[in-house]
């Protein structure tokens, strides 16, 4: 079920990554964010990592298996923010 | 003692002589200068917001207006993405570079996407991904002698066997903080030329390099992209004060 945090993250993704012609409705919570699905790339991953740090105070290891799991889709990203946010 | 005619020194002298006498042929060009009075020439665009339609949306989002205009002009002049590409810009994306320095000072963290796009070859890089061009891509900054450097580099590649070379010259206004210290264009401007060594046809022109006279050098500034556009439209001569060169287009 979509919630306020997921909607907030959708806006964060669209604004931070300057996605043209993408609306929150276009981002499916279960679809992959990277390569397939939304089609983000490795620079987007770094950019998103920085945005999570700035917005929620969450620091991630750049190339860890755990970070990959968090970035899998919107649902996993929301779970990460829920569990680790400090701001 | 007889001297062999094919010593490396003689060969080099021969190549140098050939390079000095070889003339470039201007096959075609495109230019983008928002804010300029429109002309009848369809090769000049004055669109305020170039579409960047040649680049897929997921790549296009990282390009500013100059990048979008350049990629579209490259797609027009090199539709099969097979040419060696040269890109000169005196200052590059100085606004973005300065923004990053401010961010570094104030927040201590740099945007990876902005950093990636601030490097001098960024636009050609995005174009090469979008178009599949895997030829040489060269970025040049020449402290005001960009036009001369571009023609020299193009001639080098053509003498080396390339059939065509496409050169880009673009620049953007200097950030306000530096504007009093160095001249720069008042708007983002870009011009793209396709060059070869083939004999000129009805649609192409020969580019003749000459020494600039003292009168020509008197009041001229290092050429910027809009000076190249004025020259292409036959409105003004093109002079490089640093190299004391001028170029003439002959049908």
Task: Give descriptors for this structure.
heterodimer; A: 87 residues; mainly alpha; Non-ribosomal Peptide Synthetase Peptidyl Carrier Protein, Chain A; 4 helices; 52% helix; B: 251 residues; alpha/beta; Peroxisomal Thiolase, Chain A, domain 1; nine-stranded mixed beta sheet; 35% helix; 20% strand
Please describe what this structure looks like.
The complex is a heterodimer of chains A (87) and B (251). By secondary structure, chain A is mainly alpha-helical. Chain A has helices at 4-16, 42-56, 65-70, 74-84. The model of chain A has no long low-confidence stretch (mean pLDDT 90). Chain B is α/β, with parallel strands linked by helices and 251 residues long. Chain B has a domain at 25-199: Peroxisomal Thiolase, Chain A, domain 1 (3-Layer(aba) Sandwich). Chain B has nine helices and nine strands. In chain B, β8 (238-240) and β9 (245-250) form a beta hairpin. The longest helix of chain B is centred in the N-terminal third of the chain and has 14 residues, at 8-21. Chain A binds chain B through residues 17-21, 39, 41, 43-44, 46-47, 50, 53-54, and chain B through 57-58, 60-62, 107, 109, 111-113, 116.
């Amino acid at each position: 079920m979509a919630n306020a945090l997921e909607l907030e993250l959708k806006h964060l993704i669209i604004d931070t990554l300057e996605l043209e012609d993408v609306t929150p409705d276009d981002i499916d919570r279960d679809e992959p964010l990277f390569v397939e699905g939304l089609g983000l790339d490795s620079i987007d991953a770094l950019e998103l990592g920085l945005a999570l740090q700035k917005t929620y105070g969450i620091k991630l290891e750049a190339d860890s298996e755990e970070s990959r799991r968090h970035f899998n889709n919107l649902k996993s990203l929301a779970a990460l923010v829920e569990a680790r946010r400090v701001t | 003692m007889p001297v062999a005619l094919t010593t490396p020194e003689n060969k080099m002298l021969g190549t140098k002589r050939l390079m000095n006498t070889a003339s470039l042929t201007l096959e075609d060009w495109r230019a983008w200068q928002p804010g300029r009075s429109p002309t009848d020439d369809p090769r000049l665009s004055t669109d305020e917001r170039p579409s960047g339609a040649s680049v897929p949306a997921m790549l296009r989002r990282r390009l500013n207006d100059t990048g979008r205009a350049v990629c579209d002009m490259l797609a027009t002049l090199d539709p099969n993405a097979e040419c060696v590409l040269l890109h000169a810009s005196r200052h590059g994306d100085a606004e973005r570079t300065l923004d990053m320095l401010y961010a570094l000072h104030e927040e201590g963290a740099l945007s990876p996407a902005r950093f990636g796009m601030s490097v001098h070859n960024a636009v050609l890089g995005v174009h090469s991904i979008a178009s599949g061009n895997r030829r040489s891509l060269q970025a040049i900054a020449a402290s005001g002698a960009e036009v001369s450097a571009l023609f020299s580099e193009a001639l080098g590649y053509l003498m080396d066997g390339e059939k065509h070379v496409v050169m880009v010259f673009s620049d953007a206004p200097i950030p306000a903080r530096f504007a009093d210290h160095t001249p720069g264009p008042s708007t983002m401007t870009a011009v793209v030329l396709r060059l070869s060594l083939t004999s000129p046809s009805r649609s192409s022109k020969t580019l003749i390099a000459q020494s600039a006279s003292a009168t020509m050098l008197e009041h001229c500034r290092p050429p910027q992209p809009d000076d190249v556009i004025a020259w292409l439209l036959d409105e003004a001569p093109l002079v490089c004060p640093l190299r004391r060169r001028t170029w003439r287009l002959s049908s």
